[in-house]
Amino acid sequence: MAPSNRRADDSPSPAPIYLPTPPSRDSESAVAGALAFSPDTSSARPTSTTRLGESQTTRTEFVSGLVIAAASSTLLTPQVAAARGRATLEQAYDRYVPRIIDGGAFYKNELYGAVAKGDWKAIELATQEPPKKSKSDRALADGGIARRAAMAGGFSDARVLAAMDLFASTFSESSISAKTKGMKAEVETLRTVVKSMQAAAVAAQSEGGGGLFAKKQSKSELAKEIQSLYVKGGNAYNQYCYLLNDGLPISLKKVPFL
């Protein structure tokens, strides 16, 4: 890049920002056995061979039939649990994944453009959280939910990260699975990135630093910081999607990478 004649405290020229690439891990070793809701039950369905009373049924045959029926019922229990698990996964997918996909599209397009141009106000708005419930909200029919939701940034915790966190929990039952832990770890990375982006955007528009920044930083320094945060967040989002997609039932569409 050619040297710039700008002073250190001026806004830098838009710098090229490269979108992170999807993870290239071995899907079999990364999260082997972590998916809780997609067991292969195609050949697990038991069939009873008991036939009671084609002629006169003896007591021994009757008791034998009860034992086999009870065993068949027991064998069916995992199938019923798996079916319920898939139904729960599908419901959670319909509820949360559209928000995750929309958040990724926003990150890749609108937020990318704001970071590339050094549009600090746009970055601030993109990562801002909705305000707390006020007295005026209580007078509204929905308690002000719609009003506050509209004020959440396009890649804020309230709009995107909360959905990512909740969907990650879907892959656990009685205990937290490795898949859920991995997905939640990426969400926590994204939370740190979003908070840091918000702080950098506010600092760039103020007279000094503050917030997460110990000292005043020039806009060029903040621009480098936020570009680094953008790539870090993009990698975390992609890794989350990688973990989400690995082992996802074929009936559900995979979440695209950035």
From TrEMBL:
<feature type="compositionally biased region" description="Polar residues">
    <location>
        <begin position="39"/>
        <end position="57"/>
    </location>
</feature>
<feature type="compositionally biased region" description="Basic and acidic residues">
    <location>
        <begin position="1"/>
        <end position="10"/>
    </location>
</feature>
<feature type="region of interest" description="Disordered">
    <location>
        <begin position="1"/>
        <end position="57"/>
    </location>
</feature>
<protein>
    <submittedName>
        <fullName>Uncharacterized protein</fullName>
    </submittedName>
</protein>
<feature type="compositionally biased region" description="Pro residues">
    <location>
        <begin position="13"/>
        <end position="23"/>
    </location>
</feature>
